[in-house]
C-alpha cells in the first residue's frame, strides 16, 4: 500500500506541484513572521547590550513611561564623587534627548516615524563587560558647538560626508548647522534599527538639551579589571545619596530591550494573525484538492479494495500522500519564508524600523514550526477526504458513482448552523460584553462564523448556483448551461473553492468599513469641535521648540496663540497621557463642559473627558492619582468636558502642573486664532516654519487630513498582507479548475467530438470560474458588511461614532472578483482546449 501510494503520487507530478501551493504559501508566512520576530528580538537585545556601561546610575523618575528623558537629572558633583568609588575605572556622564532631527540634503527629515531621533554627548565610554560599543568609524570626536558626529546610517541617508554642514532641528532650538566631523557606528556589526543619532561634546550637549546646566541624564561607571558588575553596583549604591537608582548594565539592557520588545510585540502578533488567515484559506484549498484527487482515483482505490485492501489501509494511503505533500510543501515554504522575511524587513524599513544591520535569525524552532504547521494542517485537511474513501464501496466506485449522499449535505447544513450560532454568540460577547481578552472572543467568533458559512454554503448557495445556470443558459446558450450544470454537479467543491476567496474578501470588506468609518468619525469630530483657525504641530507627533509660539504671536493678523503640551504617567499599571494648556486658554479650546466651568482649571487640578471619567467612576471633587517622573501626583478633578479632538488626552491640566510632574517644557501643538478680516495669515505662518520641515501649519481641512493619514496607512498595510490570502484563494480556483479538467478529461473529449470548439470550451471553463469567484465575493461582501458594521457599532463609545459603508469600494471588490474569475480560468481553459480529442475520449 505504501509503494502504491508513493507511485500514485509520483505518477501525477502536475497535481503534486499544484497541491503544494497552499502549503508552501501558508508555511512561508509563518516562517517569515517568526524569522522577522527573532531578528527583531536579537537586534534590540544586541543593541542595548552595546549601549550600556557596566553600572548605570539614573535619577528616580529620570525617564517617562515612554522612555523619554524627564526633567530629573544628575548634578556633575555626583559624577565627581563616583570617580572615587573603589573598582571604578572611569565614570562618564551622559546627556540624552529625543527630538534631535537631522534634515537631509534633500530638505527631508531623515527617519522620524517610529524609531526616535536621538541627540546627546560623545564620551567614548566602553559598553558593559568591556564590549566594543559605539565608536568613531571615520573622522574624530566633536569639539565645540560647531561640530557634530552622526551615526553612519543617518549620514548615508541624509547624504552627508565629513566636512559638510549638517542641518539639525531640536526640541529646544530651532535650527543648528554644525560641521560633520565624525561618523559613528558599531565596528563589530549592528545598527540603531532606524533611529537617528546626533552627538556633540558634553558642554555643547548640555547647552542644547539641558538648558546649559552642568547636569546629566544618567551616568555610566566602568568596572576595573577583576571587579564584577554586581560588586561595582553595590559600591556605587553605597556612595550615592537618596533619589538615585543603581543597576548593572545587564539589568539596564534587559529592561530596555524588554520594554521596547513589548512595545513592538504587536508586529509579531499582527503578522502571525495573517499567517493564520493564510493557513485557514490554504486549508480549504488542501481539502478541495484531496477531495478531487480522491474522486479521480475512486476506481483505483476501489480496485485496491477489491484486491483485499481494508478501508483503513485505503484511508492511510491518502493520509500518507498528505504527509509527503506536507513535508515537501514545508521544505519549500522554509526557503520562501526566508525570502518573505527579507521582504517584511524591507517593508518595515520604509516605515522607519530599519533592521538591515542585523542578519536574519533562523532559529531551530522556526524549522520545527514550519514542519509541524505544514504537515499537521495538510494531514488534518486531508483527513475528511481520506475518511470518505473508506466509505466508498468497491462496486460503487468501479461504476464511477461517487456522489456524496444527500444526508451528508444535511449534516453539513446542521453543522454550519451550529457554528454560525456559536460564532455570533461569541462575537457578541467579545464586542458588547465586559469579558477578559475580548479580542480572542472576537477572533474566535469571526472564525466560527466563517467556518459555519463555509460548511453550510453547499446548501445556502444553491439558489445562487441555480440562478447562475439560468442566466448563463439565456446569455451563452448551451455552453452557458453546461457551465452552470458543472457548478451544480458538485456544490461542495464549488463552495469550498469559493470559501477561500470569501474569507479574504470578508476581512478586506471589514477593514474597508472600519477604515472608512474611522475616517468619517474623525471628519465629524473635527467639524463639530475644531477651534481656532490653524493648528501647528510636529509631523512626527512629538514636541517642537517653545520659541515657535513666540514667533507666531508676532505674525501680522494673529490674535492669540494657545499652547498645548502633553506627557505620560502611569495609572493602574498602564500608561496614561496627560494634556496641558494655560488656564486662561481653556475657553479658547472650545471645551463643552458637562460639569464645572471652563475657568475652574487651576494648578494642581485637572479636567476629565466625559466618557473617560464615566469609565473610571470619577466626578468633580474626586482625586486622580498618577505616577509621574517627579513622584506620585494627586490632582483634584475641577471639571468634566465632552470629547474634543484638539485635546489629545482625556486628562487636561495646566502647563505648570505638567512641568512640576517632570515633563520637559516643550510645545506639542499650537492653536492659532486670527484677527477678524485678516488675510494671508497662513502664508505668513508658513514662513515662520519654512526652515523646519518637522513643523506644519494646517487649517481645519488639513488637520482632518492629517488625522486620517495613520488610518489610511494601517488599512493599506492590512490590505497588503491580506493580498497573500487572496493569492492563495486565486490559486485555489486555478487548482480546482485544473484538477476538474483532468477529472473530466473524457467528458471534454466527448464535447470536442460532438462539435464544441476550443473557444467555446474555454468560455465554459471561464464561466465556471466566474461563478466560483462571484459566489465567494458575494458571501465575503455580505459577511464583511455584517462584521464591519457590528464592530463599529461596538466602538461607538470609543469616539468612533460614524458608521460608513464604502459601497463604491465594495463594488470594486465585486468587479475584482469577476476579473479574478476570468484570469484564474486562463491556464485550465488553455489546457482543456489543447487536449487531444481521441486520447481524451480513450481516458479511463
Break the fold down into its secondary structure elements and pairings.
Layout: H1 2-10, H2 13-19, H3 21-49, E1 55-59, E2 74-75, H4 76-82, E3 88-94, E4 96-98, E5 101-103, E6 117-121, E7 135-139, E8 147-151, H5 152-158, E9 167-169, E10 179-185, E11 196-200, H6 202-209, E12 215-216, E13 218-223, H7 229-239, E14 244-248, H8 249-263, H9 265-296, H10 298-306, H11 311-349, H12 364-389, H13 394-398, H14 406-432, H15 438-460, H16 462-489, H17 491-529, E15 534-538, H18 547-553, E16 558-571, E17 574-581, E18 593-595, E19 605-609, H19 610-615, E20 623-628, E21 631-641, E22 651-654, H20 655-660, E23 669-674, H21 681-688, E24 695-698, H22 700-743, H23 745-753, H24 758-794, H25 807-824, H26 826-833, H27 837-842
Helix pairs in contact: 1-11, 3-8, 3-9, 3-11, 3-12, 3-22, 9-12, 9-17, 9-22, 11-12, 14-15, 15-17, 16-24, 17-22, 17-24, 22-26, 24-25, 24-26
TL;DR of this structure?
The protein is α+β, with helices and mostly antiparallel strands and 844 residues long. Helices cover 56% and strands 15% of the residues. Residues 400-407 have low confidence and may be disordered.
